[in-house]
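Quarterly update from the structural biology core.
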Amino acid sequence: MTESQGATQSFVLFRLGQEEFGLPVTSVVSIIRYETPTNVPRSTDAVLGVINLRGRVIPVVDLAQRFSGTPFVPGPLSRIIVAEGSSGALGVAVDAASEVTTFCEDDIKLIPEGVVGAEAARSFSGMVERSGGLVMLLDLEEALPRIEFAGVTLSDEREEDELNA
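Predicted structure, tokenized:
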């Protein structure tokens, strides 16, 4: 992209079913091969379980269930994208992580009103046309659920740790 096209944003692209999505590269910590998460009793349907990543316990979220109502089914190309948001680190189970790409901000369009419900619309920062299809760009803070374990959200636990430090 040339500088004359304006500001750009980089995204990690991934697939859930036949749909392509993007997460801002600035929020992605790592991409790992899918491993079966350890079940957490009484967790929400959106949480597949937790994994241990370099000594950190990371909840793994099922975005397929959240967006389409169809549970995630791992395959040979499945990955977990670990992203860091204001509520802490979360893993996103995806069918495949394909690449990092850059889009010109002028090419990113808002999702038209009425295409998805108001709650779902907040999950996306926009969409961009690519190779004859559309890439839905996720707003990390809105798309991923606030994970609660034993009535304490991860963001509450993080604030408590910071106060005790």
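The helical segments are 63-68, 118-122, 140-143, 154-164.
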